[in-house]
Predict the structure.
Amino acid sequence: MREHEWVEEFPASITVSDPAGVILEMNACCAKAFEKDGGKKLLGTNMFDCHPEPAKSRLRYLMETQRTNIYTTEKNGVKRLVCQAPWQKDGQYAGFVEIVITLPEKMPHFVRK
């Protein structure tokens, strides 16, 4: 197995960009989610073009300040957990990763001690 081969079929949408917002990688789940927009043809395009305001400005701020943003969203009854976070290569800021996980309708929550 190649080093990151598992990412392609991981059951969550994964998008990786460079510091300017150019999409470097997207897994199969992400390509399917953005199929009507071109799917894997979005590789090499800028993800700012895929976000309307105010999301575009928020994402730009997060990337400029290299901050993590984690939240949940719901659309058509489907709940998702979104994690947007900077990634590094050789200790230097290299861009942003967005992971979107579809949440089950009912999900257990455990408080650990």
Notes: The longest strand covers residues 78-89. The mean pLDDT is 93. The chain has one domain: 5-102.
